[in-house]
Design goal:
alpha+beta; 88 residues; two-stranded antiparallel sheet
């Protein structure tokens, strides 16, 4: 007797305006536009411009994932020769 494995449902994508993103990450709207956009937040990965227009919509799931990854990678842990790490 064979089992049918149901197909995974697509992960929903949350699109945020600059103002909504600012509220979630506690940054000023100007900081997002002037300092983060196109240096840390990249078009096609972290945000899109729907229909080729001027409006920017940020992809929350990707931003959240990258913030957590960056936080883990640069947490200040110092690797030890015998394995493990110490907190610096």
């Amino acid at each position: 007797m064979s089992k049918t494995i149901p197909a995974a449902l697509p992960t929903p994508i949350t699109y945020l305006t600059t103002q909504e993103l600012a509220e979630r990450i506690k940054y000023d709207v100007r900081t997002i536009r002037d300092r983060l956009k196109d240096s840390v937040l990249l078009e096609g990965r972290h945000y899109i411009r729907p229909f080729g227009g001027r409006k920017t919509l940020y992809i929350w799931e990707t931003i959240e994932q990258d913030m957590a990854r960056y936080s883990r990678e640069f947490s200040g842990d110092i690797p030890l020769v015998g394995g493990g790490a110490t907190h610096g």
